[in-house]
Hints:
The chain is of the alpha/beta class. The chain contains 12 helices and 10 strands. The protein has 3 domains: 114 residues, Tetrapyrrole methylase, N-terminal domain (Cobalt-precorrin-4 Transmethylase, domain 1, 3-Layer(aba) Sandwich), CATH 3.40.1010.10; 106 residues, Tetrapyrrole methylase, C-terminal domain (Methyltransferase, Cobalt-precorrin-4 Transmethylase, Domain 2, 2-Layer Sandwich), CATH 3.30.950; 51 residues, no CATH class. It starts with 15 loop residues before the first strand and ends with a helix.
Amino acid sequence: xxxxxxxxHTDELVGCLFIVAMPIGNRDDLSPRARATxxxxxxxxxxxxxxxRAMLGRLRADYISFHNHNEQERVPEILERLANGSKIxxxxxxxxxxxxxxxxxxxxxxxxxxxxxxxxxxxxxxxAALSVSGLPTNDYRFLGFLPRKTGERASRIAQIKEADYxxxxxxxxxxxxxxxxxxxxxxxxxxxxxxxxxxxxxEEFLRGTAHxxxxxxxxxxxxxGEFAIVIGPGEIAINRSLTGELRNVAKSLLANGVATKIxxxxxxxxxxxxKRDMFNAILTLKD
Length: 287
């Protein structure tokens, strides 16, 4: 185990790697701490240096391209620079690095070499989508982009079908309708939220079943923008454990103002189901 003490100020740090979240659409979402850190580092690792330069303007740092196609080969060079005392920031084009973006190899290597790796939290499409979805957020999984190939996509959706937790996926606009049709075919009336162009002009949030949302998008001249799809949990726990009289009792308790956590704990004890599963089941009863 490696313990890494933190210095009080960025200027005091040497040989460290900062993981800096970037805006997902609105430039004003870049935090003052992130701006100050990026202004102080020696090197900025960027997916697209042109995009990052346009966002940040003129800074003292050198820019190095760092993306899915070269991140492995860049690791030795970056480790050497860290060993020589450079302060380095890793950014993505939008959002938090490593969240469906490059960065894992260098973070793992830098940590293993004993260098400080410091997060600067900020914008993130996954949690932004969850926060406005209107779906349970106590337990969720982020699954990245849905696979492009039909068979692989069907297999991924089949995994989601068995999930009793909320799932978040990304999808490209030109595949949205086909993916929604596939979700409708496998998940039926599972509740969804589509989050398009979050924090950008034309920001939009759509809620309904996959079938309803696919039908809506088909009425448009074109499907544009960046999409996050939030898929509500299935009813596995309810169907398996919370049936008949227990279901009615749970609904009655909720209607009389008993806290969800208390109802879930009572039903879990009565059925032997895991508390997490039962909590998700009770949340669904409240819809």
